[in-house]
Amino acid sequence: MQNALYQIIQKNKSLLERGGKIRVLLNDCFITIFNETDEETSAQKTITLVDTYDYKINRNLSEIIEM
Fold this sequence. Notes:
By secondary structure, the chain is of the alpha+beta class. It has one domain. The chain has helices at 4-11, 13-17, 61-64; strands spanning 21-25, 30-37, 44-51. Strands 1-2-3 form a three-stranded antiparallel sheet.
């Protein structure tokens, strides 16, 4: 069985190939996934960045930033 992150990447492969990004919010961090072209081989590779956050606010963006 494949893990959930792998399934998300496979489901959105065409988005990544077009230069899009996938952002996944977890309980304790968020993940950003994108494709990047390797300068040496010109092959595309998938990059996964994991970052934590300092605060969590249970509000919509429009409630804290005037739009």
